[in-house]
Every structure is written in structure tokens, then in C-alpha cells.
């Protein structure tokens, strides 16, 4: 039985993306080559409710239906995009392009999980020019 199972919002491929603006102040220290764009927040969660992460964690049970990577971006001066690249055990398993239309902007992608995929996972956030903006790990136990 899936303890955290929320099947709503997942596509058959296991990836879902949504974006919407939120109120926050941009931070200083932007990535070179990506004028102004920064990751203000990056968390993993079991669900998204009212455009906010729920059940935030860095470790999830193996029987969870899926994991969301929620990212809040600040400093975008124009419409652009980022990519969430999902890795399991160091191997790329999924990539999702996400629009960024203003600053601040929040967006997320999700990955359907399988019990046999236990172990370390990493999601890397890449700017439209390919530069890494952030990277974070979670574990499927």
C-alpha cells in the first residue's frame, strides 16, 4: 500500500510541471552568464497543494507514488526557462524543461517512483544556457 500515494496530477510518464508567480525579493549574487536568475528555494515533497510544497523531506519511503521537486526562482529579467534533470545513482533518468515568466516564479516537476528504485537521487537545476543553478539530493528508502 502506498502510504503517501497521491496519483492526482501525475502523467503516465511520471512528470508534471506547473508554474506561477509568487511574492518574494530577489537575492544578489547571480550566476555568471545567467543575468539575475537564482534558485531561491529548492525542496522535495510528496505533494503540491495550493501551489506550495507539502510533506517536505529529503528521505521518502520506497512505496511513495512520486516525488516532486519544487523550485522558487528569483531575479529573472525576461521570460526564460530552466531544466530539472533527475538522476538515480548518478545516471540521468528524466529531464523536464520548465518556463520561467517573471520574478519571483515558482515551478515544479515530479517523478513517479518504483519500490525497486531505492537509493540516492539528485535533481539538478540548469539555466537555459546549461549552467548549473542548484543541485540537491534525496533518498528513496
- The tally of strands reads 10
Give the radius of gyration. 15 Å
Mean residue pLDDT: 83
Give the strand order, joined by hyphens, for the main sheet.
Answer: 1-8-5-2-3
Low-confidence stretches: 1-33
Strand content: over 45%
CATH topology annotation: Immunoglobulin-like
Q: What is the number of helices?
A: 0
Instruction: State the oligomer.
Output: single chain
Helix percentage range: under 10%
Query: Please, what is the CATH homologous superfamily?
Result: Macroglobulin (MG2) domain
What series of H and E elements makes up the topology? Answer: EEEEEEEEEE
Describe this structure in words.
The chain is mostly beta strands. The chain has a single domain, classed as Immunoglobulin-like. 0% of the residues lie in helices and 55% in strands. The chain is built from no helices and 10 strands. It has a 5-stranded antiparallel sheet, with no helix packed on it. A 5-stranded mixed sheet has the order 4-10-9-6-7, with no helix packed on it.
Tell me the layout of helices and strands.
Elements: E1 18-21, E2 38-49, E3 52-56, E4 59-60, E5 66-74, E6 80-88, E7 91-100, E8 105-112, E9 119-127, E10 132-140
Parallel strand pairs: 4-10
Antiparallel strand pairs: 1-8, 2-3, 2-5, 5-8, 6-7, 6-9, 9-10
